[in-house]
Design brief:
Blueprint: E1 6-11, E2 25-30, H1 35-38, E3 44-55, H2 59-66, H3 70-78, E4 85-90, E5 98-102, E6 113-122, E7 127-135, E8 142-155, E9 159-171, H4 184-205
Antiparallel strand pairs: 1-2, 3-9, 4-5, 5-6, 6-7, 7-8, 8-9
Helix pairs in contact: 3-4
Keywords: Alkaloid metabolism
Organism: Musa acuminata subsp. malaccensis (Wild banana)
Pfam family, one: Bet_v_1
Length: about 210
Amino acid sequence: MGNAGFVELLPRRFQSNGGYPDKGLFIHLSVSQTRAGRRRRRRAMKGTLCHELEVGLPAGQVWEVYGTLRLAQLVVELVPNVIQKVDIVEGDGGVGTVLHLTFPTGTSGGPQFYKEKFVKIDDENRLKEAIVVEGGYLEMGFLSFLVRFEIIDKEEGVSSIIKSTIEYEVDEEHAGNASLVTTAAVAAIAEGVSGYLMKEKSGASN
């Protein structure tokens, strides 16, 4: 049987206070020595991509969109060529909120949909993180996929930076799929949101 797991029957040799010597059998379970090999961590490749956009808007104003569900509502309107539909599966925009994102058909090689979960929202530092929990990249050999948004003060009350970061881990066997990951979507979202807010600001000042 080699190193595979097996059950071995051995004679029972137990005697205590006039017990039962050599009677019966006891079951000895041999733990497979290959189990550790089966549980061995899969070799994977990690990657990080980052995009930054400086905008002439206060960080707080930009965070009012990025830090809330308003972002999910606006992206469909502003960049429908990037995200076609966003459904709120559960939550109110806080940590634990789950969204179902649908992408336009014909998106070259990318996912058609996935569900993401908000795992971190830091209002003080204007930072938000979401991970893919179902579909999309997880069906393409990726072990994890995280998107992080940070709104950084450039000049207080005047300008800020929208920093979008993608972190992923992909199984070595599917390492070629890493080429499908780009910052194009988060860049388009940043451009769309900032343009929208600039128009909103301009309209309010007129």
